[in-house]
Amino acid sequence: MRDFPEPRAVVVAAALELFQAQGFDQTSVEQIAKAAGVSRSTFFRQFGGKEDVVFADHEVLIEQLREFLAEGHDDPWGAVCAASEFVFAHFAHDPELARRRYQVVRQVPVLREREIITVFRYERLFDDYLRSALPGVDPLDAVGFAALVTAVHNHVLRQLLRGKKKIPVSTLQSALADVRRRYGVHQDATAGAPDDVVVAVFPRSMPVAEITRRLRAQLD
Amino acid sequence: MRDFPEPRAVVVAAALELFQAQGFDQTSVEQIAKAAGVSRSTFFRQFGGKEDVVFADHEVLIEQLREFLAEGHDDPWGAVCAASEFVFAHFAHDPELARRRYQVVRQVPVLREREIITVFRYERLFDDYLRSALPGVDPLDAVGFAALVTAVHNHVLRQLLRGKKKIPVSTLQSALADVRRRYGVHQDATAGAPDDVVVAVFPRSMPVAEITRRLRAQLD
To answer: I need a labelling partner for A73 at 20 to 30 A (CA). Which of A15, B131, B182, B212 fits?
Structure first.
């Protein structure tokens, strides 16, 4: 996928630093432009307004995903998961910036609402893509898979944004592999592994905690 | 669950008829109040504004679901599905009104955005409920199940809202049964057990926390 356009990234970074330090409402476009070393008119050429600075990455990402998905893929379910991993990798690349954005969004209701709407755009993109890439797919499966990938993605991304600790992409990958298994579209689905049902036999007297421990050991 | 408050319903019906006939932006609060046979001040006591009329049902429904879920349920996954069915039944009860609302929302971007945010509130309610009702549940399972139920619900509801044909609640029920199977928490997921040896058969996809919960219920 394409590289991220750098000139806007400088403005985004400067703006988020100001938003976090002095508040979103208290920060003017003039202050952002000055901090980023651009003119007011350059700012407005790059962004529609203050809000758009916060969601600039998403606008670019959604466009990149649209292009990526349009390339055509042998495994459309896998392509949706790859798209999710791409978004995660983008934010994990600069976690400090991502965390700053998250803190700002959390504190401003109008930004929080716009974020929910933005999340829905990813979900919709995945849904539309699956329906077009898989003619005859049950729309319910496309809708469900898109929603599940989006929800799982956001949950793992939130772990990265909330804490200080590093969340490796493998955390997301394993969550996405789980989503694929639930839809029976995991990569080894055609290998015919009899892993759908687990039969556990144990004495009634065994403590539930021990049963759980053993099951967990077996299932992992 | 509680009955729907009727006085507001009259205003909602009158407003939606006006919105559809002459447009949302072109309809004034005065016109709505007059059509509903209430005073302007009664309108503002019942609703914050024009937008709130469109989402009044959701406000009541979300509160009703919150109360219903708080009652405590043996099968929390099933309770979330029952909540979804309750919402569907509410709109299916008067499909003409629901379709009118859908047409109005589709045509006004600000209403469309608020709808997306409203949908997210249901999803969040289900997620929070599952996490509190199932201590130790993997948050990823709660997040995913909540997102999937919400997405599937909306898809089936949209079929009702878009077309002229009747969509029976059984369409939603079978879609929700499918969601439960994907999470291994369908009603017949656990088989009976003999005396001193317990044989537990469950789908590999069932969350360990759910296996524990069911085992505990069976063994106690």
So the answer is: B182
